[in-house]
Amino acid sequence: MESAELFAGCGGLALGMSQAGFKHRHMAEFDRDAVATVLHNKANGVEHVHAWPMNLQDVREIDWSAFGALDAVSGGPPCQPFGIGGKKLGQADGRDMWPEAIRAVREAQPRSFLFENVRNISGPRFRLYLDWILAHLERPSIQRKANETHDEHRERLLASRAKPEYRVVWQLVNAADFGAPQIRHRVLIFGIRADMGVDPQPMIPSHSRDKLLWDQYVTGEYWARHGLKVRAEPQLRQDQTRVAALRREAQDPKGLPWVTVRDALADLGDPNGVGNHVFQPGAKVYPGHTGSPLDLPAKALKAGDHGVPGGENMMVRDDGSVRYFTTREAARLVGLPDDYEFPRSWTESMRQLGNAVPAQLGAAAGRWLSGMINKQRPGTLDSNRKAA
């Protein structure tokens, strides 16, 4: 299956899509440092990455109609216009690239697409804009007119009698529910071209907090696996309540447990100064920023506009002390292999990792998308697909 990746960053989503069986025919990223990271690993022959056609490129300059047949277009438009930590200007922010994502779909007419963004885009402040995105992705050929507001265009799209060109579904997901050792809430938008006769469905989680709590505090299997003394009760009050309920129910939850920080880093050892596994001084706790406990998935890594946020990208060790995640540890939390190197500074590397989609979530979403593509109803006309 052939795909194109917009806003590729340091490669988290792209790697997940590659692991799911997609072959990237084009990858575009505007940030020089992120492109340098990918090209460094491409030159080193990292699996999947060695074949990536990565380009330092502004997506606004791409003619997507020149790509011929594509099975998928994927990417994460910059989230800064919608994130809780920024100015929250949304579509008024010059960094908003959702119109470019929609243009890519309009021009390339892929069989499917997958886009992701921050949870906040589905909140009250931006929900009408998300509704515009969804309506426009359903009918990308009905373009916004000059001087037409997004609200006016949304209403025109929703009132249109033209057949939808894509069938679209969106959902709010937690990356930890799909095997990432990081609690990262994202909005995913799936689309399948209407002529394929397939209705896209939301993803079904494969991992759960309940299963982790069961393994930790009902059977104790988690502690035995790590060679640790069994801990009788979780620290968080809501988890204590849930564990009590699980014990009453006495039924092993289905699926896999959340992957914890301890799970992800178990064989890595303390920072040794080799490669990207270098100790970074200065970690400290302050109100609202207390680091990530070892026995849960990590809190979402933060990129930071002016350096690494002081209390976000750090672990809480067994003795209660804290330290920053090394670049290697953060890369593991994002699902990048140990031979995937970051040649820039720790601050720049953490910025890239804080912006990255966890590869575990990308792989799960890519496999889900692939499964929907392969459900194309026999006999349906692939009329819009262009000759390769």
Automatic annotation (TrEMBL):
Coiled coil: none
A GO term for molecular function: DNA binding
SUPFAM superfamilies, sorted: S-adenosyl-L-methionine-dependent methyltransferases
Domain of life where this protein originates: Bacteria
Catalytic activity: a 2'-deoxycytidine in DNA + S-adenosyl-L-methionine = a 5-methyl-2'-deoxycytidine in DNA + S-adenosyl-L-homocysteine + H(+)
A biological process from GO: DNA restriction-modification system
InterPro entries assigned: C5-Methyltransferase, C5_MeTfrase, SAM-dependent_MTases_sf
Enzyme Commission identifier(s): 2.1.1.37
Residues the record marks as active site: C79
Keywords in alphabetical order: Methyltransferase, Restriction system, S-adenosyl-L-methionine, Transferase
Pfam families registered for this protein in UniProt: DNA_methylase
Gene3D superfamilies associated with the record: DNA Methylase, subunit A, domain 2, Vaccinia Virus protein VP39
Main EC class the enzyme belongs to: transferase
Family the entry assigns: Belongs to the class I-like SAM-binding methyltransferase superfamily. C5-methyltransferase family.
NCBIfam families found in the cross-reference section: dcm (TIGR00675)
Protein name (record): DNA (cytosine-5-)-methyltransferase
Organism, scientific name: Oceaniradius stylonematis
Gene encoding the protein: dcm
